[in-house]
What we know:
About 65% of the residues lie in helices and about 0% in strands. The chain has 13 helices and no strands. The protein folds into two domains: about 1-10 and about 25-125 and about 185-255, AhpD-like (Up-down Bundle); about 135-180, no CATH class. Helix 5 (about 70-80) packs across helix 7 (about 100-115) and helix 10 (about 195-205) runs antiparallel to helix 11 (about 210-225).
Amino acid sequence: MLSQLHRRMNRFWHDDRTLEQSDPEFIELFSRFAYREVIDEPGANDPELDDALRSMAILATLVACQGRDEYEVMLPVALRSGLTAVKVKEMLYQANAYLGLGRVLPFLKLTNTMLYELNLALPLPGQSTTDESTRRRQGARKRAEILGEEADHGDGPGDRAANDDPTRLPKHIQKWITDDFFGDYHTRSGLDTREREIIALCLLSGQGSDAPTLSRAVKANIRVGNSRHLLIAVISQCVPYIGYPRSVETLRCIMRETPDGSRCAGDEDR
Length: 270
C-alpha cells in the first residue's frame, strides 16, 4: 500500500514543475521519512494496524488538518488497500460532528468526485440505525458505552448540585451531544465502535485539540478496547502529515492515560 502511495506522491510532485525544480531535497527528505522510516519502525506498528486502518487514520488526520492535496493523493491508494467506500464516507460523516461542515464539505465533494470516477454508484447504502423516535435512547446508550457517563440534559437525577457548576454546558448543548453527536453519528453502521474512536482521536489530534480533550478521547479508546500500543502506532503513522507538536501532545496524553507500566514493542526510554 505505501509503495503505491510513494509512487502517487512522486507523480504528484513531478507533475508540479515548481516543486520538482524548487524543492528536490524536501521531496527526498519527506519520502525517505514517511515511506521508509515510519512504515518500517516496529514501535509505529501493531498487529491490528493493517493497511486499511492505517489509511483510514491518515485520511481522518488529513481532513482534520485540512490537507486536501495529500488527501486527494491518498484516497485512491486507501481504497485499493482494502478500505471500503462506505468506511471512507462514514469517516467523513463522523468528521462533521468533530470539525463542522465548513471544514468537511470540500473533502466530501472531493470524495464523491473520485468515487464517481471509479464508477461507484452513489449514494452508497444507508448506514443509519436510528430515527427521530430512537436517537436519544440509542445516543444515551452509546454515550455511556464510550464515555462511561450518563446523558445529562439538566432535567434528571444528575441535576442535583450541577446547577452550581459555572462550567456546566447549557441544557440544549447537552441534549444535542446525546441526540446528534452520539445518536445520529456514533450509532451508525459501516464502522464499529473501536474504529470510530480511533477516528475520533485522529480528528482531534489533527486539528490540534487541547490536552484535556485528547485525554478524554484516549480514555474512550481504552474503554472500548483499543490498546495503548495500537494508539501509539496509529498516531505515529500520522506524524509526517501533522508534524511533531500535535503528534507529541497526543502521544503524551496516551502515555499519561495508560500508566500501567506495561511495555510495548518499540517503547524505549529516551
